[in-house]
Write a structure and sequence with these properties.
Number of helices: 16
CATH architecture of the largest domain: 3-Layer(aba) Sandwich
Largest sheet: 6 strands, mixed
CATH class of the largest domain: Alpha Beta
Radius of gyration: 23 Å
CATH topology of the largest domain: Rossmann fold
């Protein structure tokens, strides 16, 4: 465990062999496997092609496709994992893609399996299934190393925990001999940031959604009716793949939709572009920062102003000084490391990249913010800071729609909770009447 930028992923990559160490020694017996935090899959290829890439069974000079499919099915059956060998990666949700990465490493029969943020994008039920698989692997004799930010998972499933800070190991202990608070203090070198206090919500609707339909297939939005008021956080709870992505893409103007969307009294027809929605005051924290939010080879400044380039112009020229000042304010307010607005954002850790994405949305005078998994893959200290900034925005009168697969996050932040299942909203709960058992049952499809 450790904060973003503490060196965890680098250490895992050195152990795996994809990054060379400057000095020191690693002793390992057997094959090492690594499931990356950011998947290394070829999206245009099928599952079996990714799993067996480089070691495909052959018949003469040609790949033996039936044997390859059978091999993947046998691997899945052996480890209790379900995959369609012929599915294309680009059509799969995040949880299934992770399964593909895991099976790809398992086919090499690793003695040591490194898992970098393996549950960052999984729903609660998927996390339970994942740890059943991990425990089964450990029981077979595989050494498991998990890089994670989730303290509850460490306490529930790990035998030992090692904490890194600023590129060094600062503590190592048996889980049975420590506490959540002690681990958290070791990670951040002190107490955690506190989440801002709440103030009463306003009653004016900022966003009204009526009979909204969008998307196709299993993840389609069948129908949604709700509103988000100014100065309110509405949380959407649900297992991934139940229409949340279609809802988010429709609100952002990324896909066609039917039904009525009204923002601050202005109808948002499907033809209203994402750029026009930004001008109206709509902002988004996308679910996948790499695919939807960042240009890795650009600087923090260029990414911080992405989508609002016209705002940082002086005549026909870009006002680079003002753009840099805006980016540097995000760097300082969100504790981005390294604290340099000119740094290439692709060189930052995932958590520091996420801080820039969140800061860009919250520090640009928003009226409405769509926050989709805003703390995915970031450490406990950074998550507390992001959550505090969301509360501050809400207290300043911003309307926030929070889509999260972390129930604890929903319960921490939301004033109202909507539950999605099968592309529909199947339950609504006010903050004073949140019921974890009922919400969990509705997420699983109970009536």
């Amino acid at each position: 465990m450790g904060e973003n930028g503490a060196g965890k992923s680098t250490l895992a990559a050195i152990a795996y062999g994809s990054v060379a160490a400057d000095e020191g020694t690693i002793h390992v017996t057997g094959v090492v496997g690594l499931v990356h935090q950011h998947f290394k899959l070829i999206e245009r290829l099928r599952v079996w092609e990714n799993v067996l890439l480089g070691c495909e069974p052959r018949r003469g000079l040609a790949i033996d496709v039936p044997a390859a499919r059978l091999r993947v099915r046998e691997l899945c059956a052996a480890y209790g994992l379900e995959l369609d060998p012929d599915a294309r990666i680009e059509s799969l949700p995040v949880a299934v893609r992770q399964r593909v990465e895991l099976v790809r490493e398992l086919q090499r029969e690793p003695a040591v399996l490194l898992l970098d943020e393996p549950t960052a994008a999984l729903a609660p039920s998927e996390i339970d299934a994942f740890f059943i698989t991990v425990r089964a692997l450990a029981a077979r004799g595989t050494a498991i190393v998990i890089v994670t930010h989730k303290l509850a998972e460490v306490i529930a499933h790990a035998d030992r925990v090692t904490v890194m800070r600023s590129g060094k190991i600062v503590d190592s202990m048996r889980v049975s001999d420590t506490t959540v608070a002690a681990i958290a203090r070791a990670m951040v070198g002190g107490d955690l940031p506190t989440i801002a206090a709440r103030i009463p919500t306003e009653t004016m609707p900022a966003l009204a959604v009526t009979a909204l339909r969008a998307g196709t297939g299993a993840g389609a939005l069948i129908e949604a009716n709700f509103e988000v008021r100014a100065g309110e956080i509405v949380g959407i709870a649900g297992i991934e793949g139940n229409g949340q992505s279609a809802l988010a893409d429709a609100l952002a103007g990324m896909i066609p939709y039917s039904g009525d969307l009204t923002f601050a009294g202005t109808p948002l027809f499907a033809r209203v572009s994402p750029a026009a929605r930004i001008l109206l005051g709509m902002r988004a924290i996308p679910q996948d920062r790499h695919k939807e939010a960042l240009v890795p080879d650009w600087s923090i400044t260029d990414n911080a102003t992405l989508g609002r380039q016209r705002t940082f112009r002086s005549g026909i020229l870009r006002d680079r000084a003002r753009a840099t000042a805006f980016a540097q304010s995000i760097v300082e307010r969100y504790d981005v490391r390294p604290p340099n607005a000119h740094a290439r954002i692709g060189a930052l850790s995932g958590g520091n990249q996420q801080k820039v994405v969140v800061g860009r949305a919250l520090e640009s005078d928003p009226r409405f913010v769509l926050a989709y998994q805003p703390t995915r893959g970031i450490d406990i200290g950074a998550a507390a800071l992001v959550q505090s900034r969301l509360i501050e925005a809400r207290n300043a009168g911003v309307a926030v729609l929070l889509i999260s697969f972390e129930l604890d996050e929903i319960f921490t932040l939301a004033d109202r909770v909507l539950v999605m299942f099968g592309g529909r909203i199947v339950g609504t709960f006010e903050r004073g009447a949140l019921d974890r058992a009922r919400i969990g049952a509705l997420m699983a499809g109970a009536r």
